[in-house]
Amino acid sequence: MLNQEQLGFFKENGYLIVPGLLDTELCGKVSDMMWSSLPTSSSIKKSEISSHVGPFLQEDISEDSIHYRSGYRWLNRALGSSSEVIDLIYSDAVLSIAQQLLGGQLRQIVREGKPMGSEGPVWPGGPTDPATGTQAARGVYYTLPYGDKPREPDQCHTDGHPFQLGIVGLIDDSPADGGAFKVWPKSHKTLYPTFHLRYDQPRIPYYDHLPSFKGILHTQAYRDEISRLNEEVTPVECWGGAGDAVFWHHRTAHMAGHNYTSVTRQAVLADFWTEDLDKFRAKPASGDMWQDWAACIQESTGEYSEEFALAQRLAGTRTKRET
Ligand SMILES: [Fe+2]
User: Fold this and answer.
1) Does 320 reside within a domain?
2) Residue 160 CA to ligand 1 centre (angstroms)
3) C-alpha of residue 200 to centroid of ligand 1, in Å
4) 193 Cα–ligand 1 center, Å
5) pLDDT tens, 104-137?
6) How much distance in Å is there from the Cα of 158 to the middle of ligand 1?
7) Are 192 and 22 in contact (CB under 8 A)?
């Protein structure tokens, strides 16, 4: 269970790193399953570190939504429904934190159920919606080392599908600058009121004969705030060791980090919400943004020590204008 300082930090910053939360033995097992899921013909071999550098070669690319490999991203969503991943990311320790934060009745996941991506992308060549057909975790997500790929700027986004709380757990050590999950601290508070809906957003349907306008409809205020975050706020990189995990609020701006190390970033991703999400999702995003969460977070004063902020890598997270 989280203490008052952890609750306060999460409330204020929209994320919370919990070191050593996941069973490291299971982390190793899931990592082995991931590496074993590569076709035997793949040029990437677990034992040959130099072969891990991306991008995937043409013959190793897979556009399959359930087991995607392209560029530097390797996303095995089939594993998200496996018993091993479920035992790892829906452990009692993880669930008790999710329950503490959200209150209510957590949605039930399905063991060996349908994985994310089983219904394909939302439109031809489009993204895969985590809310469609996903009966457990999102999956095991790797980011290959970038090798000599030129550095590129960080660009944040928010996720479009309805949920309330996310988790990214490292299943192997991920050093700084190594592609770990990045969050824009406090962005959940500034982005929340720019949405029409509390946990959802209006969509534009895709039509084959009208392909240029599709996806999610954002407000101008949202687009302005995303630009401001990219311009002014330094993100926090949630690097760490195997078993470390970060919880993040649904509206927290984030990105999959760029991997400038020689080590593949190995993580497992999952979402949490309560059985009331359908009731909550289309309500207006106004008033207390914690109104659907547990009393302990509603009542938190949002206080934490400077030392705690340092441990959460918030040190030096002044706005770019201040630096
Ligand atoms: Fe995302």
Assistant:
1) no
2) 8
3) 14
4) 19
5) 999 999 888 999 988 888 888 788 889 888 899 9
6) 6
7) no
- The token duo for 286 is 């106004």
Q: Has residue 214 got a pLDDT over 80?
A: yes
Count of domains forming the chain = 1
Residue type, 205: P
The conformation of residue 128, written as its DSSP 8-state character, comes to P
Q: What pLDDT was estimated at residue 292?
A: 97
Query: What is the distance in A from the centroid of ligand 1 to the CA of 255?
Result: 6
> Is residue 317 situated within a structural domain?
no
Residue 280 has which token pair?
Answer: 């909550």
- Rounded to an integer, what is the distance from CA 272 to the centroid of its chain? 11
Q: Is 197 within a domain?
A: yes
Give the CA radius of gyration of the chain: 19
User: What tokens does 41 get?
Assistant: 């013909």
CB burial readout 34-59, b (16+ within 10 A) else e: bbeebeeebebeeeeeeebbbbbeee
CA distance 280 to 74: 33
- Judged against a pLDDT cut of 60, whether residue 204 lies above it is answered with yes
Q: Is residue 21 part of a domain?
A: yes
Q: Which domain holds residue 163?
A: 4-311
CATH number reported for the structural domain that contains residue 179 in this entry: 2.60.120.620
216: helix, coil or strand? strand
